[in-house]
Amino acid sequence: MINEITDTVINCADIILNEAKKLDAREIDTAHKLERLKKDVAVLKRKLGEAVLERDNFEE
Fold it and tell me: CB within 8 A of 23, min separation 6: which ones?
């Protein structure tokens, strides 16, 4: 269970870093990419919250 949570956190961090690297390319549609990144981060935040709840339930 802990390994699954760790994997989730690492995957979330990787996705955020990859999206941030794309933004550094200074492409014309940066505003669109920022909106997409906000949505991705919101989804990842929810997934991390679920992983924490699973961990808390597992520890009880």
Answer: 30, 33, 34, 37
Mean pLDDT over each residue of the chain, to the nearest integer: 76
The tokens of 59 are what? 């520890």
Q: How far apart are CA 39 and CA 57, in angstroms?
A: 27
Q: List the chain domain ranges.
A: 2-59
**pLDDT tens string 32-52:** 777 787 888 888 888 888 887
Q: Is 41 exposed, middle or buried (0-12, 13-18, 19+ CB in 10 A)?
A: middle
